[in-house]
Give the backbone structure.
Amino acid sequence: MPPSSPDHPAQPMKPSYLKWLLGQGSRQGLWSLPLFIALAIALGLSLTTQQFTSTGNLFNLITQAMPLIITAIGQMFVILIGGLDLSVGSVISLSTAILALGGPAYVLIPAVFLLAALIGAVNGLVVTRLNVHPIIATLSMQYIVLGVTRILRPVSGGTVPDIVIASVSGTLLGIPLPVFWGIAVLLLSWKLLHGARFGLHLFAIGGGIASGMEKVAHNFGVAERRNILLAYVTCSCFAALAGVFLAGRIVSGDPNVGLLFELDAITAVAIGGTQLSGGVGSLHGTVIGALVMALLANGMNLTNMSPFIQTTVKGAILLLVVGLQSRKKMGL
Amino acid sequence: MILADKTWQRLRRIPPSYLVFAALLLTLWVLRPHMMNPNILGIFIRQIVPLGILVLGQLLVMRVRSIDLSGGGVILLINYYISSGLFPGASMMTFVAMAIATGLVIGTFNGVMIAKRRVSAVIVTLAVSIVLVGFVQYLSSGKPPGDVPAMFAALYNTKLLGIPTPVLLWIVLTLLMSLFLARTVFGRAVASVGENLSAAHFSGVAVERTVIVAHILAGLMAALAALVQTASIAVGSVRVGLDLPILAVAATILGGVVFGRGEGGVWGPFFGVLSFALLFILMTTLGVDEPGKLIIQGFIILLAAIFYGVRSAKP
Amino acid sequence: MASLVEMSNIAKAFGGSIALKSVSLALTPGSVHALMGENGAGKSTLMKILAGVHQPDAGEIRIKGERVTFARPKDAIAAGISTVFQELSLLPNLTIAENMFLGREPTGWLGTVDYPTMNQLAERALAELGLSLDPRTLVADLTIAERQFVEIAHGIKADANVFILDEPTAALNAADVEKLNRQIRRLRDAGKAIVYISHRMDEIFAICDTVTVLKDGELVGTKPLAQMTPDRLIAMMVGRELKDLFPPRATELGEVVLDIRDFRIDAAAKSFSLSLHKGEIIALAGLEGQGQQKLLRALVGLFQPAAGTVSKGGTTLPLPASAASGIRRLQAARIGFIPEDRKDEGLFLGLPVSHNITMALHAGRPSLALAKPYQREIAETLASLQVKSAGSEAPVASLSGGNQQKVLLGRYLAADMDVLLIEEPTRGVDIGAKSEIYKLLRRFTAKGGAAIVLSRETIELIGLCDRIYVMHANTLVGEMPAREATEHRILDAALVA
């Protein structure tokens, strides 16, 4: 094929909706299919159960989904660079434990984010500077943070600052506050991913890793290590934000509230079409993925399914979703 | 200078577990000299045998650049159907056969997903574990099942040649794994795949098959670990063995075997497991509580990984 | 005229292997400077040092008389040095514009990436090269040639003074090469300094003013091209008469050992047939990426051809081969495949020489069998390879590039293959090792073996082989005996088609 030239102009690419829906010609991944799945579940639930479409349940759904949406978006930043953060579940628990320590909110809330940023920075440093595989680095961090959390709060309890509770349970102009949380989180993450060089550079680093061109981004002046470090910090801070939300919802600190959250978050990201090998993914896909998970949980609750079998269903979904994502690399 | 360099390089090749084991033994001897008694140590080592057997599978999959975190689910499932009374009158051999079949099936599933479908090994094996744990909890409604047939406990408490039978089983299995890796064509294939997957492929190694077989063997080891674990606690549980896979990863890394590299052989991880046994004795006798143990475990995994990460970093 | 860039006494080693020994290079504004040398002579390393990718162990770089050090590529870009790298360096998941502006994106309000400006600037840069591509297209959706042009547009940054073009034309046809040359002349006339690396002699003579030749990491000399002829240039690069480098060709050929019939690389390509005789080495030549590698990789199942049959000594090999077992099937039929990238695809760098040599032998046996020691095979192979190493238990990584390549070859010689399919037999090895590898291959064919060889170096193909097949546009377009072949004739055959 000759390259296009003035004599042989390239065929301008036809905007094909099919291509767009399949996530081709873009690096957003396949997010349209999960969207249809989400709509199908919602439709199915509204036809089979009476409670689903009630306003109460829908707001409940948003409140239930919010921590996962927040955590999944954070996790997506790390997955885009071909990493994983398994410590987010512990960070969520830690955040609720700190908020329940008792003290003024203006001290506790900054403390939560500072600590989360520190955890993320350590993850990032260990991965970038000490050459440790992200899974091992964040897995050991999961243990360490969980241990600290259980020292701070061996069992669930404590009092959470009122403002935190009010921020998730109140309404503004008749709209529940979690909706505003959602909007704020989306704006923030959109800014990071699409409105700044940071996001583009994450795509570049991840694309390089996924296609065996690790050095390329660095060669063109992308500060690789710094961006990877910041991705882990971002991920950790989003988890802390989810922890703040959860603390407001359960009105206490709980060392187990974040248990297995990292896997739910990874599942949500993967459902949303983001490739675990890095470089391909989207914000809206991740939100859709989290909604699919929330709808499933909501549906299973509405149909009175055992909470234990729900764990099995979630695990099976994770297997199915990642099983459908083909990648070149074998192993971890 | 060059000589010092070489010595240093050789020193760095010693699996960290040997040093950690020696250091912990010394600490124990100084702080709690009365614990340095073969009978007491034997009891503690017997308790660590499930971990030791699980590590044999873990080191195999880690040498082919994979990982297996599904052991917790496998142990829980096998423990459940032995202790639940779902199979009244089943003989011990039936249970052993069922356990082995379970391990092989799950290992095969892991291996095929990882080698053929190229799914991230962490995700697959964690998800498999979650599926199994949820399934067992669903069957038992979150309540501990019944008792384990008495035969298991009886066998667990026997001694052969003065060594507790479970410990002897562990040593024999370790010897077998050591010979298997050192002497067979499969062992060469494992070393090749771990060192360079593409080069292994271009040398004619059946890469996918090697990875699948490694996972099948890891499943088998998890099943054997489950049998020993079940015998040791003698009752059913809905929590048993859940933290074993991650400890197995830690002991393997501590033993000088890490993704793709097998310098620690089989005995490095063996001593990694023994180090954990000593660590548990120390933490228990020094009164370190549950959260403290978590933190220490996390740091040990991290430090072992950093040790390897720094070592394998390009100059 | 004063030099724009002066690199003096640059030295660089990677681990144990020395890539550059005290090399100097001066670039003057308004000139095109050819950098020549065989693969592994150190051209790319020298240019990567100038581009800030590698840091020199010794020596200094001056720009307009001022001493500079580049700790990272960004520093070199800031100093006005812009590079088109030899390896494809475009990220497939970014758009053309994003790739072109990676690391220096225009930003607007609150640090937002200014995509409209970026796309506009990219479109303009593409237009200057005569390309009308949409800058918002993902690179993954481009053809190879389009990528190469985007790569060039990427490297040619408007504000730079020094341009490094490392084999920019490898995948381009004649018309496109001319288009590129127009751009190079334009830059030259604007007073820029250009370094041009290419294997194609006629291009060098068409566009360059000065030539610097490197061999085995050492400077051979710098000459005005007006004083050179292609033959003298080759002699400078090779450092000896060509006839001393290559062993004599085969005198008699046996029966056909490998027969490829009605082969179609893809649905759009014409079908072709070719055959390989016992005792023969044939070459697949032509421009880069014209299907040579696809043909070889199709035989081992790494590429799915549209049609064709392959038979060896009368037995038909199954096609399409499976990616997972293709190599094993081929090895069972005593056909060995030697991949081009010895570090990533060929060798187990951290494992001993003995393991590297015997792995193909082991792999032919059942998994549960006891591994044979193969001591005799190892000793014989090492003796015939003349590998000067610490011994068979030394890790391959401790060997020089040439010895590493010989060990890789040794693996397939030890496994007693009838046919070898070789991608790049001597990439990145010094001239002495090259000559030894050629001899090893000839000794292999003299004993009844046969080989198909690919190489980016046409001189190597002409010197080493008996017969040359020229490929273009995924099909066979010509065949000639190697003794009558010249680079020019091969290119002609490729381009006439």
Chain B touches chain A through 55 residues (CB under 8 Å). The domain at 17-28+47-312 of chain B is CATH 1.10.3470 (ABC transporter involved in vitamin B12 uptake, BtuC). Chain B has a mean pLDDT of 87.
